[in-house]
Amino acid sequence: MSVAIRLPLQVFFDREARHPRQRFLVQPIKGGEVQTLTWAEAGHQARCAAHWLRARDLPQGSHIALISKNCAYWIIADLAIWMAGHVSVPLYPNLTADSVAHVLEHSEAALAFIGKLDDWPAMSAGVKADLPTISLPLCPEGEFDFTWADLQTCSPIQDNPTPAASDLATIIYTSGTTGLPKGVMHSFGALAFAATRGTELFGLGEGDRLLSYLPLCHVAERMFVEMASIYTGQTVFFAESLDTFLTDLKRARPTALFGVPRIWTKFQMGVYSKIPASRLDTLLRLPFIGKRVGHKVLAGLGLDAVRVAISGAAPVPEALLVWYRRLGLDVLEVYGMTESCGYSHVCRPGEQKLGWIGPPCPDVEVRIGDDGEVQVRSGATMLGYFKDPVKTAETITADGFLRTGDKGEQGADGRLRLTGRLKEIFKTSKGKYVAPAPIENRLAEHARIEQVCVVGDGLSAPMGLCVLSVVGLQDADGQGRQALQVSLERLLEEVNQVLDKHERLRQLVVVKDSWAVENGFLTPTLKIKRNVIEAVYGSQFPAWSARSEAVLWQD
Questions:
Q1: CATH assignment at residue 453
Q2: What is the pLDDT of residues 91-119, one digit of tens each?
Q3: CA-wise closest residue to 175 among 225, 214, 217
Q4: How far is CA 103 from the centre of its chain?
Q5: Closest Cα partner for 488 from 502, 509, 470?
C-alpha cells in the first residue's frame, strides 16, 4: 500500500497553524536557564529570516552554509533557508579550517550561518572574507556581517512556499573516513519518503520527547530528530555541553533516543564506574530485585522513559545489546547511509535476532551483488554527488540501486547481516584477505575495551589495536594491570578460536593514545579513521608483529 507523501515544509506549516502554542524546541542557555520555543515562535523567526534571505536577491536555489552545533536555531535556520527557496549545506561543527574552506568552496556557498561552536577561532580561517556571515544566537564572539537580530527586524513572510518534491533540499557532506568528504544531494521528496515511512514504524507522536546531541549535520540526527519532530510533533530538547549532558538528558527524559555504538558503550562504562560489573551482574540475576535494579540503573542514566532506543552508524557488540536488554531496554539496530537518508533496514520492537539487523524498511528493495555487496533501492536514494557525476555513476547502478560498499547476507526472513566493508578488506603478506569489522565487533564486547581497530595489510597476521575505557585505564594502573592482562589474553584466545586460521590475530596492542574527533582519529560520528590510525602507528607494526607476547602495551 502506497503512503501519501507530504513534504517537510507542508507538514511544518500544518503544525504551526494547528497547535501554535505547543512546545517544539527546548534550548538550554548558559547558567542553567532554559528557553522554550513553540511551533508558532519557531515559525515566526524562520519566516522573518526567510524574508531577509529573499531580500538578498540571490538566485533561486542558492546554497547556504550552516555551521553550528545542535541548537534550536539550527533547525529554525534550516527551515528559513527552505522557505526562502534555497538549499541548506550543513557543516560539522568541529572541522578544521582547511575542511571548512573545502566544503564552502566546493558547495559554492553564497552565505553562511554561524551558530553555537566550541572553537570558532580554529575554524574561522576557513571562511573567506568575501563570504557574508550571519551570527545565530549562542554563537561565539567574533566579527560577523549580520546578526540574527538583524534578520528578525524583517516582517515574517505570509505565504507558505512549497517546493517541488524533485527540488534539491540539502547537500550533506559525508564525514569522510578516508579522503575528502563528498556532497550528497537530497531532494525534498527523498527526505519526505524516509520521514513519512520511518516515523510510522515506531508509533511516535506529539507526546514524545527527543534529545538532540549528535551532529544535526549528519543524516541520522537530521532524520531522527529534525525530520521526525516535524512529522510527528515531538518535542526536541538539546544538550548544552558534554559537561552538562547527564543533566540535559534527565531534563528531557527522552522517550526516543538515537545513539551510535560508542554512546551506548559510554553509558555502560559510566555505570561500571559506580558499580563493578560483577556486582551488577549478580544483582540483575536476582528474582524480583533484578528488574528493579535494572530500572534504577536506567533512571540514573536518564533513560527510564525511553520506549524506542536506536543504534546506528556502526555494528553494535552483541554483548552490549544483551546488557541493555537485561536492564529492561531493547536497543534496536538500524542500518542506512547518508546516500539513502539513513533509511534502509531497522529492527522491529520485540523481533531482535542477535547478529542480524532487522528486515528492510517499508518500500525498500534489497539485493546482494555477486561480490557480496548490499545494494538498496527506494525513494530515499540521493540525487547524486554534487559536481561528481563519475562517482555518482559508480555508486548508483543503471537500474537505480545504491551500492552501499558493505558486504552482507540476507536471511530467508529478510533480516540483514553485515560481514564487512568491501574497501576495508586488507591482504596479509600470505596473500589472504581479512575483513576487520566482524573481528573488531567481537573484541569490542570486552567490558574494558572502548575502541578497537584491526590492521594487517602486508603483515603475516592481523593484530588488534585497542583503546581502553577510563575504567580499564584505572585497572591497568598498578596491581590491576596483571588481571587485565590475563583478561585480554583470554579474550584474544576466545576470539581466535572462532576465526578462520588466516584471520587469527597475532596479538592485541593496547595503545596509550585517546582516539577522539578532536585529534583526528574519529569522524564527527565517532567512526574510526583507519587511514589515520595506520599512518600514526604503521611504522611500529613490524616491530610489534615480531614480538611473541599475546598482549602488548604501547611504550
A1: 3.30.300.30
A2: 989 888 888 999 999 999 999 999 999 98
A3: 217
A4: 19
A5: 509
Distance CA 453, CA 439 (A): 9
* Rounded CA separation 132/312 (Å): 36
pLDDT digits (tens, 9 = 90+) for 502-539: 888 999 999 988 888 778 888 776 778 888 888 899 88
**Where does 222-371 have alpha helices with state H?**
228-232, 245-252, 261-272, 277-285, 289-301, 318-327
Q: Residue 134 — very low, low, confident or very high, per pLDDT cuts 50/70/90?
A: very high
> What does the alpha-carbon distance between residue 421 and residue 83 come to, in Å, rounded to a whole number?
39
Burial 344-371 (b: 16+ CB within 10 A, else e): bbbbeeeebeeebbbbbbebbebeeeee
Is 287 contained in some domain?
Answer: no
Q: How far apart are CA 31 and CA 213, in angstroms?
A: 19
Q: What distance in Å separates the CA atoms of residue 210 and residue 312, rounded to the nearest whole number?
A: 16
- The SS3 call for residue 484 is helix
Q: Closest Cα to residue 170, out of 405, 338, 376, 393?
A: 338
Q: What are phi and psi of 533, to 5 degrees?
A: -60, -45
What distance in Å separates the CA atoms of residue 388 and residue 397, rounded to the nearest whole number?
15
Strands (E), 155-313: 168-173, 183-187, 209-212, 235-238, 256-259, 308-311
In Å, what is the CA distance from 392 to each residue of 57, 109, 114, 217, 445?
31, 21, 30, 21, 37
CA 514 to chain CA centroid, Å, is 20
The residues, ordered by sequence, that sit 6+ positions from 518 with a Cβ below 8 Å of its Cβ are 94
Cα 436 to Cα 32, 421, 443, 524: the distances in Å are 44, 8, 11, 21
Write down which residue in 185, 216, 232 finishes a domain: 232
Q: Which residue is it, cell 550561518?
A: 113
Report residue 96 as a C-alpha cell. 578544521
- Assess if residue 391 is contained within a domain: no
DSSP helix/strand/coil, 26: strand
As a whole number of angstroms, the distance between CA 539 and CA 516 comes to: 21
Q: Residue 82's domain spans which residues? A: 8-232
What 3-state class would DSSP assign to 409?
strand
Contact 63, 81 (CB under 8 A): no
CATH code, domain with 84: 3.40.50.980
**39 with 20: CB under 8 angstroms?**
yes
Domain boundary, last residue among 232, 257, 284: 232
pTM of the entire predicted model: 0.81
Rounded alpha-carbon distances, angstroms, from residue 115 to 90, 112, 214, 554: 11, 10, 16, 40
